[in-house]
Each structure stands twice: as structure tokens, then as C-alpha cells.
Amino acid sequence: MKTNVLIAGGGIIGSAVAWALAARGVSDVTVVDLDLTGLYASSELNAGGARATWWQPVNVETCAATLEFFREHADAFSFRERGYLWLYGEQMLFEIAKEKLELQNDFGLGVELLTPSDVVERFRTLDPDPARLVGATFSPRDGLVNPNAVRQWYRREAESLGVRFLNRHYVIGVSTTRQADSKRRVTWVEVLEIIGRDPTDREGTIRDILTTHVVPPDRTAAHERIECDVVVNCLGAWSPVFSAKIGVSDVTEPTRRQICMVSVQHEDAQRIGELLSMGMVVDPSDLYFHPEGKDILAGYSIPEEAPGFDFSYDGEGFFMEHVWPRLVQCSSVFERCKHVRGWSGLYAVTPDRSGIAGPVRGFTNLFEAHSFTGRGVMQSYGIATAMAEWIDLGSPSGAITALTRERFADPARWLVEDLHI
Ligand SMILES: Cc1cc2nc3c(=O)[nH]c(=O)nc-3n(C[C@H](O)[C@H](O)[C@H](O)COP(=O)(O)OP(=O)(O)OC[C@H]3O[C@@H](n4cnc5c(N)ncnc54)[C@H](O)[C@@H]3O)c2cc1C
Predict the structure, then answer these.
(1) Which residues, 6 or more positions from 198, have their beta carbon under 8 angstroms from its beta carbon?
(2) Per CATH, is 2-45+148-251+351-413 categorized as 3.50.50.60?
(3) Is 48 near ligand 1, meaning CB less than 6 Å away?
(4) What is the best residue among 235, 241, 343, 403 to mutate for testing ligand 1's pocket, by most ligand atoms within 8 Å of CB?
(5) Which pLDDT does position 420 carry in this prediction?
(6) What is the pLDDT of residues 112-140, one digit of tens each?
(7) Which among 105, 159, 316, 357 is most buried, taking Cβ atoms within 10 Å?
(8) Is the pLDDT at 197 greater than 80, yes or no?
């Protein structure tokens, strides 16, 4: 098979790049993914937070563009502009937050500074010990989104413009040739079609391949070499596995992140009503939560989590040790609440916690867009439209050029993003 652009990975980033390329008129685009239902894709396993309130200009810019796009499709994406309330417990961090206000508000975010007493007056269902807070920011234009609806939209629109999405296709090999200018060119990508039609992955085939990178021989139906003019690595937490095949050493580490759903029982219906109408709240302890239907979705990134392709969920233990004590510190409404269920997914974490995007140095036709830590959904449109421009025209507009992997060679060029959860 031959294609013009081959995109490895059909998560939200690969789907968005495919759509953005097709929308620019680039023809013959193919996306390959081991599992387009996304059972283990971060795009299906995330918290649905969407904010442009970041500290690095490129992150603010690309997320602000994405939020604008979410607003245009608010109904289709269930985008709810309910704001992000960020509570600070450390004076030093709060001072940085104040400094960043100008940058954020230049993008029209309207971020407000709040005192601890503003917080409890304005968000009456929260009653943190005032001694835990030094201040807060509230970003009214941020919100919550249905990430699956967004990914489906990118895919559907891309397909309607002629993009092919090949499911159960696993990238196992990449062939390159050396050019006259000593750069390399990707000539073909080898994919395996994996047998196994059970979309619920009850046999565990998909999970086993995505955690061990070994394909059981009896699961292979067909090898195919796809010749391509351009290749884009959009494999998220698996991007280093691809890079390793072409001798590029990656800085990204896949890291487990857990989320749980919590049901709240309280006799005061008004407090519950207020809680369920809030947006995202980030506690000084780094716990985050927001309403999801009649329950609360809460997440916490355990700082000492070791890197790895680990999809296990610690269940009640995660809730009792990490989530519940932090929820109660934020609001007494959580004194009586129940762990309902939870899951884990992978963050693709870089040393500066900003993503990687652009052409891969040393190659004439290889691009990459991955490793967006906890930001891939809210950055998807901004990154995809800039990447499509880069691939189509040879250079992008906007700040995205700061995201190439070359920055890691010089710590002065790192885009350290400290406003992460
Ligand atoms: C718990 C959690 C909470 C998060 N919360 C938020 C949030 O609130 N807001 C936000 O914006 N972001 C959030 N994120 C981050 C966001 O989900 C990711 O940044 C984003 O989904 C990454 O998308 P992607 O397309 O790069 O990767 P993925 O969605 O992971 O897609 C990668 C794809 O590659 C495929 N694949 C892997 N290896 C191969 C191979 N060899 N061949 C073929 N296919 C392969 C996989 O099947 C997968 O579909 C969260 C992430 C997690 C885990």
C-alpha cells in the first residue's frame, strides 16, 4: 500500500492532525492504530478538563485556540464554560500565578485573583481552612469537555474528507534510507493487522501488546508495508517505542495517572446543587475535582509514581489514601462520600512537562506531535492546525516552533510548565 501522509496513532492528537491536514486540502492521509476504540488511549481515559490557564506562552496560545474551537462546537462537545478555580497554599507559587496573569489575560482569558475570603464567599460549598490558602485564581473561560465526542468529531470530519483510519493495525517497523544531504528519509512503515475482533478486549490481546510491545504470533493476520511520503508520530505515551525503531532516543516517560468517581451524600440539597454546578477545582494539595453528572470526578497524580506502561487501578485504596483526605480538606460536603469506581491511563511526561511537536531533526519527512502530559485534549486543535500548516507549507505560524525536541539539548530552552496537575 502507498499513502501520502501516514499518521501513526489515532488518539485525539493523530485524529486532529489528520482532520487538520485534510481540511487544508492535503489528500491521501492514512491513520493506523492498534485500537481505534481507544481502550488504553489516554484520549479516552482522561478527566475532560479544558483550560488555557498555563504559565508557558505556547501552552496558553495553543490551548486558547482549542478552547475557542470548543466554544464554537459547544453542544457537540458538551463544552461547559464553568471556569477553573486554582487554590494556592504556597506564597511563592501564588506570586508566580500573579505574574502570569498578564500573559493569560492578553489571550482574553479574564483570569481573576481571589483572596481566601473571596473564595469561601463566592464558592459557598467550599470551606477550606483559611490557613491553608494564600490566594486563588479563577479563570471563567476555562471549562469541561467530553473528550470522546471531540475525538469522534475529528475522526468523523477527517473521514468525510477522505482520510482512511485503519483499526487493529500495529506499527512494528520503520525503514529509512540515507539521502544525499546525509539526512534520512522514511520510506515505509511496517504494520501488522492484529486478529481479535472482541472490542471489549476480554482476551487482553490489545492490553498485552500495548504494555509489553510483543505481538503473540497467533494474533498476526497480515504484514503490510505502507510506503509514504510523510510520516507523523502521534503515538502519545508510546511515541518512544516508535522513536527507538529509528534510533532517536526519546525523553518521554509513560506514567500512570489514576482518576475516580465519587458519590456525595449530603442532606443540604442546596450545597449539593452548588457543588454539581461548579467547574474544575484544584486544591493546594494538587488534588483536582469537578462534577461529572450526579457524581464528582477526582484525580491525583502520585508524585513518586514510577514510569511504565501500567494500567492497573488501585481502587478503594487510591481513594482512601490519596483522594478522600484531600477532598475533605477542601469542603466538608465530602465528609460523607463514596468511592464509586475509577480507572487509570498514561500521561506521556517530558522533563519540562510541555509537549513535543515539529519535524524530527535528521529526517526529511518525519514529524511528531506527542507527549502532551495532562494537556492533549485541551491543546488538540491548536497543535493540529499548526502541525498541518508545518507539514503542508514547511513552516507553521504561532509559537509551536518552541515545542521541537531540540530544546532538550539546552536546559535554557526548556519550557518548564509548573501549572500542571
Ligand atoms: C488520567 C488522565 C487524565 C487526564 N486529564 C486531562 C484533562 O483533563 N485534559 C486534557 O486536555 N488532557 C488530559 N489528559 C491527557 C490527555 O488525555 C492526553 O494528553 C491525550 O489524550 C494524548 O492523546 P494522544 O493522541 O497523544 O495519545 P493517545 O490518546 O494515548 O493515543 C495514542 C494511540 O496510539 C496507539 N498505539 C500505540 N502504539 C501503537 C503502535 N505501535 N501501532 C499503532 N497504534 C499504536 C494507541 O492504541 C492509542 O490509540 C489526561 C490523561 C490521563 C491519563
Answers:
(1) none
(2) yes
(3) yes
(4) 235
(5) 87
(6) 999 999 999 999 999 999 899 999 999 99
(7) 357
(8) no
Decide if pLDDT at 343 tops 80: yes
The single residue listed with the C-alpha cell 486543535 is 381
Q: Which CATH homologous superfamily contains domain 84-143+254-349?
A: D-Amino Acid Oxidase, subunit A, domain 2 (3.30.9.10)
Please state, rounded to an integer, the average pLDDT across all residues of the chain. 96
* Pocket lining: 43 vs ligand 1, CB cutoff 6 Å: yes
- Distances from the Cα of 281 to the Cα of 52, 60, 136, 139, angstroms: 15, 19, 10, 11
Query: What residue spans in the chain does CATH classification 3.30.9.10 cover?
Result: 84-143+254-349
CB 216: neighbour CB atoms within 10 A? 13
pLDDT of 137: 98
| Beta bridge partners of residue 165, listed in sequence order | 31
All CATH 3.50.50.60 domain ranges of the chain, comma separated, are 2-45+148-251+351-413
Cell 501500567 belongs to which residue?
Answer: 310
| Whole-structure pTM value | 0.97
Task: Indicate which residue's Cα is closest to atom 13 of ligand 1.
Answer: 374
